[in-house]
Design a protein that fits this description.
The structure is a homodimer.
Chain A (H helix, E strand, L loop, with lengths): L1 E6 L14 H23 L8 E5 L9 E3 L4 H8 L5 E4 L8 H9 L4 E6 L3 E7 L12 H11 L4 E3 L3 H4 L5 H10 L3 H8 L3 E3 L6 E3 L2
Parallel strand pairs in A: 1-2, 1-4, 2-3, 5-7
Antiparallel strand pairs in A: 4-6, 5-6, 8-9
Helix pairs in contact in A: 1-3, 1-7, 6-7
């Protein structure tokens, strides 16, 4: 089994540019990647079937795990890896992920195991059959279910709030602030973000 | 064990008023309640430990399950029920809930079992100890963890995307459209909502 964590090295997290500078987005995305790798390491202890992760990066990167550089767009780079099965892909911005949630990804039955992201994304999946391929345009979650259907693959779903939140938009920072436990949550606090109570849900903001 | 589904009979879902009329909000909130009751019924079949639900309503209501009318604000009405333990409370707008997610609520160990909502809410909980009480102001999820800590109660968490999404704000309609399987999802489609692909996540809208 292979496990890849895709990471966009250049200009990461552009949808956070309203609230974070380019330099901050670099730092923050590195902190989230570190959190994901750390949580995967904890998931692997006691679960030897979970493979060691490789970062699939668009540019060279200094981290403590193997890095494969692939400059192609995410979809092409991931599909090249899916020619071998089983292959798992866990996004690098799942800063709320817990070891328990990731263990569920690997222990759920199905030719395709999928964890939906907010807004129709696909935040993590395990393809146990090389007939699966990704399509990240539009609502990839629906597209991936359709691809599985076309290929006759059985589907298992991981129903997890912590895997559903990929930190992409300013509103996601609130979820990280409320539930995060790692370096990226600390980074947000150090950067001056605070909880603000509104009429409905709480939000984070900074001066 | 008791199980309550709180329901605001008058002027429901005001935060959806940008996209739904008052009459539509009434219909839609009733469809979501029906979905929650249906999914609870399916969770109970095969799990006889899950009690039959009672709707805790601010006004008389015509549904197929027992209704208790309590005109007080949600917090007071719920706290009155928590004098008896164990008591579970499942919100009436969890239109993405599945039987599997609700079974997890009842099978997770802990004096307090809690399913967080987006934006710091508390979408479902099971209090196995009468020392627990609710505080729905602000980030109730954090407040509830703090109350459990003060009272020396053990906490179990249900990490579920489907329980994390309470349908309160326009953005939540997208999650329901993508993942819902019941009457409220059908209602949205019939009301003319459609998926729209944006730069990032998909969204629903109507003409």
């Amino acid at each position: 089994m292979q496990l890849f964590v895709p990471f966009a090295g250049q200009r990461p997290k552009t949808r956070l540019s309203e609230v974070l500078t380019a330099e901050e987005r670099q730092e923050f995305s590195r902190a989230m990647l570190a959190d994901v790798l750390e949580v995967l390491e904890r998931a692997r202890s006691g679960n030897p079937d979970i493979p060691a992760p490789t970062v699939l990066s668009t540019a060279p990167l200094d981290v403590d795990v193997p890095v494969v550089v692939d400059e192609r767009p995410l979809q092409e780079a991931v599909n090249a890896r899916l020619e071998t099965a089983p292959t798992a892909v866990v996004m690098a911005d799942l800063a709320l992920a817990t070891p328990e949630a990731l263990v569920r990804l690997f222990s759920t039955p199905g030719d395709l195991v999928i964890a939906a992201g907010l807004g129709g994304g696909t935040n993590a999946f395990l393809a146990r059959d090389s007939a699966f391929h990704v399509d990240y345009h539009g609502a990839s979650y629906l597209d991936h279910l359709a691809i599985a259907r076309e290929e006759g693959l059985s589907v298992g779903e991981v129903d997890s709030h912590r895997l559903a939140v990929d930190v992409d938009e300013p509103g996601d920072l609130t979820e990280l602030f409320l539930h995060g436990e790692g370096a990226s949550r600390d980074w947000l606090g150090d950067a001056g973000f605070e909880l603000e109570t509104t009429d409905g849900r709480v939000e984070v903001s900074r001066e």
